[in-house]
Amino acid sequence: MTDLRVFLVDDHAVVREGLKALINAQTGLTVVGEAADGLIACERIAVLRPDVVVMDVSMPGLTGAQATARLQLECPAVRVLALTVHEDKGYIRQLLAAGAAGYVLKRAAPEELIHAIRAVAAGGVYLDPSMAAKVVGGFVRKAANAGPPSGDLSERETEVARRTAAGYSNKEIAARLELSVKTVETYRARAMEKLGLQSRSDLVRYAVQQGWLQDG
């Protein structure tokens, strides 16, 4: 039987080494790669195509939520498990909305992390028991009260705005959509104006509310 292939993303080398030792000691699990920030992680994961990515939340460059959203666009078959010290429901909801298959708090027992990796690899969803009820309840209420649909945006404006929220640069979007950088900038500006948004962080919040970042 082939081992489950795991990729680690955390900006602390000591944490990565500890996780690597723990995971490689388990039957049927192998760490195939690691990265210290979200952008490098996305690049390496696109090549390695692991089964599960254990993703930190707070990192330089792309945040855990942005990296997760980007992976959902580039590698929808890869399952993301968030591993975080944050017990703030806002962080966790954003990760779930971005497409994470689950999350585990860093204070959890080692066996809980291993169980979570196996669960999401099998296609399930894993929510840390200590936070699950609060997070799911709030997430459902938030979805029910989401803002107005993005029907006023053109298809191109929506695609550019969605990829911007997922952490792509204008140059990367231009290459993927076969447009000039100037055209991408124009679409982005129009989308922001139509939505009444002022910053990229505003756009990320809006994208989460609309469910854009969940679509593979």
TrEMBL record:
UniProt keyword DNA-binding, yes or no: yes
Database matches in InterPro entries: CheY-like_superfamily (IPR011006), NreC/VraR/RcsB-like_REC (IPR058245), Sig_transdc_resp-reg_C-effctor (IPR016032), Sig_transdc_resp-reg_receiver (IPR001789), Tscrpt_reg_LuxR_C (IPR000792), WalR-like (IPR039420)
Domain Response regulatory, residue spans: 5-121
Modified residues (4-aspartylphosphate): D56
A Pfam family per the record: Response_reg
Gene Ontology process terms (BP): phosphorelay signal transduction system; regulation of DNA-templated transcription
GO MF, one annotated term: DNA binding
Protein name per Swiss-Prot or TrEMBL: Transcriptional regulatory protein UhpA
UniProt organism field: Fimbriiglobus ruber
Taxonomic path: Bacteria, Pseudomonadati, Planctomycetota, Planctomycetia, Gemmatales
